[in-house]
Amino acid sequence: MQTTIRSAISFQGVGLHSGEPAKLTIRPAMAEHGIWFKRTDISLGDTLVPARYDVVESSPLCTLIKNAAGVSVSTIEHVMAALAGCGIHNALIEIDGPECPILDGSSAPFVRGILSRGVRELTAPVRAIEILSPVSVHTAHGWARLSPEQGTTMSFHIDFDDKAIGVQDKRLNLANGSFVRELCDSRTFCRASDVDAMRAAGKALGGTYENAVVVDGDKILSPGGLRHQDEAVRHKMLDALGDLSLAGAPILGHYEGHKAGHAITNALLREVFANPDAFRIVLCDDVMAARLPGAGVERHEVPAVA
Hints:
alpha+beta, Ribosomal Protein S5, domain 2, lpxc deacetylase, domain 1, 7-stranded mixed beta sheet, 5-stranded mixed beta sheet, 20 strands, lipid biosynthesis, UDP-3-O-acyl-N-acetylglucosamine deacetylase, lipid metabolism
């Protein structure tokens, strides 16, 4: 059955790119509501923005959604990944500014907050998007593909010149709470050589060594080092789950990313929905539901670092 959070939970911090203070509150919602953001700092006009792939705007380094009135919310990928990874299908997310708080750079604080409140089952069945035939998108920078699979699985490949990252590959079945155990605490990362350029472009103004992993060649500059030896590819998978959740329903299929980022994953969803023979909407029985992200997750599985 569809779910929501049992009671509201709030998070406060700064936006990674804006550097501005932000408060975000996840509230329960009824069945069939889906995930919506509401800008509480705007008093007039349409302040609701759907968490949906077709309202994603081109934005470097993060996922930004915007409604027809021009109201936007950015850097939504970590909270969206947390909701998907905890199996939350319906929620209203109130936010008092244009960018979600970055917190520690991962999804773990959101996951811990959601699971501390608990997941409430609703009275409507879960619909899933079942991939029937392979769909892919390719760019000069990378590619991504969705292929038929009985459950929700993911594989990812990255390749960076910096030896602190280098070449990393990971494959994961996202059922049975594996997102919470394996991916949710992996932080966003960047190269020290890119920081000045990002800030000159008005990005990463809220970035610190505490909310991002900063690498310089073979060195990890962030105190405490890495949470996982392959933290970078795990974070890329975290981002991909958050971006895939903008399909509006869980996906039964295998996602494969090769040096893919937010724009490529969004282009992939658009390509899927432009090809109606490539997918179908299914009502999940108990067997299908057990294969979805969030199935069987328990609060004690959240990594202690969160």
